[in-house]
Fold:
Amino acid sequence: MHRRLAFVILFSLLIAMPGMSLAGKVSRGTMLANSCAGCHGEDGKSPGAIPRIAGKSAGYIEQTMKDFASGKRAATVMGRHALGYTDEEIKLIAKYFASQQ
Amino acid sequence: MKDYSRRDFLKIAGTTGAVSALGVMGFPAIVNSAKASGRVVVVGGGFGGASCAKYIRKFDSAMAVTLVEPKKAFITCPFSNLVLGGLREMPSITHSYDALKGKHGVDVMHDMVTEIDAAAKKVKLAGGKTLEYDRLVVSPGIDFKWDAIEGYDAAASKTIPHAWQPGEQTTTLRKQIEAMADGGVYIMVAPPNPFRCPPGPYERVSMVANYLKQNKPKSKILILDPKDKFSKQPLFMQGWEKLYPGMIEWVKGSDGGKVDEIDVATRTLTTELGDKHKGDVINLIPPQKAGAIAFAAGLTNADGWCPVDQRSFESKVHKGVHVIGDSSVAGKMPKSGFAASSQGKVAAAAIVSAMAGETMPEPSYVNTCYSLVGPNYGISVAAVYRLGTDGTIVKVEGSGGVSPKDVDDAFRAQEAVFTRGWYDSITADIWA
Structure:
């Protein structure tokens, strides 16, 4: 019984820790962020005229993507991209680039 | 960067049991420091293959990746139109494999795969070596259907260039454009669908027009097209009208645009309706099919392209062989360098996940293609893709589309700036 209880507690703890690192080699967040890298550069580190997004705060990226999608923020191409992702996906993308240096 | 969501954790907990997941979580270093997690051979070092090789190593640095590519440096098809128009020189669209080798630990072999033995999981190289693999990635780009237009074959392409595989062909065509007299006629024979880079022929015409307008303003451009419409058509035509009024004529398929025959000696084209057109420079882009090795390995379908599982890009013909880029059948995605790179990353994720015995996350794919209509006049097409319920790649509803039609010069100029930024970013993402 005790063992089972300990297991349940441990299990709950793990679930409660968001963004923890694990041996999974490919995450959904990385998969999504890799799409952005084509234009914004590897890991968001653009070498040219397209804005660098590596290291921007997650909140900023998330809000900017939502503003592109709603049209609140003017864009050339980003409105067409932003509409391709759910709020949850935008969160994952934002978190990925926020963690890049 | 490894991100683990609650949902991913529950998935693992549910499939492998929480205890084993815990074990993995506690000792990731031990798991990762095991011997090479697998051997992958990538055939072709273009947008698809080079992306795939690099991203496999990015996902799992314990993976042994060999990239087989005959060319010592890669010349991109994107921006080769700018070379034709005189806005760029060849070295600026040529990329070395040094970073893939040195920085990313990919074993790059400048050789050519001549045979794939999918059952024995081996490839033979022209140089005599045999490579064994756990997973093979085939990214050979396109080949041409030389028998489609009478009188046009590989030999004829030396004087009537297609320039649809850049390099010598690009240089030949550039020289011909430079040698053309003012008042000459440049004819482009556009290819039928599906073909590499749908907006490419029309960007090329734009770049040639830009050069002619400045240097040989009495010249004309004629596009003979087997199709009745083309990519970003209203935007291109609006740009042509504004920048090169009266210079470019487009003849669509139903108006006799389909070319059946060429007489190379007299540079005369004969259309399906029997009309004859003589050009001073002819750029003939033939109908296309998957790269030669895809045929040799039996990876192709009756249409000449490679059917794949569109989640992993694993061939529907041979297990353990993934086909990406122009050669693959990838649902709604166009045959573009950008799409090939996106597919390369997804295939990399699929391979790394499969080798690790993990479930691959739901894939996401993307395409973004810029075209220059003039040096400061850019237009774009973009879309986000996902795997549809029928297993084919579909556009995420509401996403994507082309640049708006009614915008000011500043908008076009901004997109022209982003066109160059796009090139800098994607080539660095792949080859730097």
Remarks:
- Residues 147-286 of chain B form a domain with the FAD/NAD(P)-binding domain fold (CATH 3.50.50.60).
- Confidence is low (pLDDT under 50) at residues 1-34 of chain B.
